[in-house]
Amino acid sequence: MMEFTAEMIAGFLGGDIVGDKQATVHTVSSIEEGKAGSLAYLTNPKYEPFLYTTQASIVLVNRSFTPSQPVAATLIRVDDAGACVLKLLEMYNAAKPRKEGISRLASIAESARVGEKCYIGDFAVVERGVEIGAGCQIYPQVYLGDGVRIGEGTILYPGVKIYEGCVVGRNCILHAGAVIGADGFGFMPNAEGGFDKIPQLGNVIIEDNVEIGANTCIDRAKTDSTIIRRGVKLDNLIQIGHNVQIGENTVSSAQTGIAGTSKVGSNCFLAGQVGIADHVTIGNNVKVGSKSGLDKNVPDNEIRFGYPALPGMQYHRAANIFKRLPELDSRVRTLEKELAALTRKEE
Fold first, then answer.
1. How confident is the model over 254-288, as pLDDT tens digits?
2. What is the C-alpha separation between 38 and 58, in angstroms, rounded?
3. In whole angstroms, what is the distance from residue 219 CA to residue 163 CA?
4. Please, what is the angle between helix 6-13 and helix 81-95, to 10°?
5. Rounded to whole angstroms, how far apart are CA atoms 110 and 126?
């Protein structure tokens, strides 16, 4: 278990210590759940009361913060506590020992090429012609089909399945159960009333620095490639259809589904459970609210909410009317009765 002293942390972050410079921590916690041996942080003023009761050994605070009560924990004052927490997490992660070596229980084809300082765990299967770059981490029960290429420094967690011919770039992370390159959902009605399968002959290309969540599925293209561009971050339980393209640095939350041949631009944000129909083009810098459904193209720099998805302000105006519908219905019914009474009097 790695331990860090307040003096080491302050030196790394350029911070000032208030309290015991030899206080040690071995983990990170939220300030309300802080325990002895943990490092917590205060970035939101509404959590200040927890500072005076937390059991955390060290707490990061902004230099501008002044406690209103005595604090038992050692404080480290920094310019930006939130940014410093990220730096510490990165430091802690980098300090963890990396697995190395190839398990004798792994099945690796003779024609496969494995780079230096790789780890391949128990019951991983590496088929013919696979290329694995240096420093990769291939956890137990990963499957790499014929001709798969994996770039340097990529991590494939347990149970990742990558079908034949697919390509994963450098420094990617694929979490447990992700499936890359399964057949796209392509069927043609036949004369007997059933469906004939359309062969899916393309592949999936995942560029560098992509992270893909657990149990996310990215289908291979019918022809050419399904493409996930550099820096994309996909959450758990996402479905990406065949021939889809997702632009650089786009982020999507869980349970999003993107149907075949749609294109999503760069630097987009798709919230949870967004649905995008087939052959739709989403521009760059687009933001889509949770549970929204898009069946039409969206230009650059737009915001969409709802189903069918509407521009941001239009959606909010419509939602305001929708929640007043019971009241409006009651008023209409009252007016109809009054109108009917006036009509009878005139008769």
1. 999 999 999 999 999 999 999 999 999 999 999 99
2. 7
3. 10
4. 110
5. 9
Half-sphere exposure of 180 (CA within 13 A, CB side): 36
> What CA–CA distance (Å, rounded) separates 168 from 203?
11
Q: For residues 195 and 201, give the distance between their C-alpha atoms in angstroms, rounded to a whole number.
A: 18
* Domain residue ranges of the chain, discontinuous segments joined by +: 4-95, 101-314, 317-346
> What is the Cα–Cα distance from 267 to 180, expressed in whole angstroms?
22
Whole-angstrom CA distances from 63 to 15, 76, 77, 87, 145 are 9, 9, 5, 17, 53
Q: Quick check: is 242 catalytic?
A: yes
Q: For the domain 4-95, what is the CATH superfamily, name and number? A: MurE/MurF, N-terminal domain (3.40.1390.10)
Domain at 101-314: CATH architecture: 3 Solenoid (2.160)
**Residue tagged active-site, from 26, 242, 279, 316:** 242
> How confident is the model over 39-95, as pLDDT tens digits?
999 999 999 999 999 999 999 999 999 999 999 999 999 999 999 988 888 877 777
Distance of CA 338 to the CA centre of its chain: 56
User: How close are the terminal C-alpha atoms of the chain, in Å?
Assistant: 92
Rounded distance, CA 282 to CA 274, Å? Answer: 13
Alpha helices by DSSP H, listed for the chain, are 6-13, 48-51, 81-95, 312-323, 325-346
Backbone angles phi, psi at 258, to 5 degrees: -120, 120
> Are the C-beta atoms of 76 and 21 separated by less than 8 Å?
no
CB 107 within 8 A of CB 86: no
Please identify which residue in the block is written with the tokens 């359309």: 198
Type of residue at 51: L
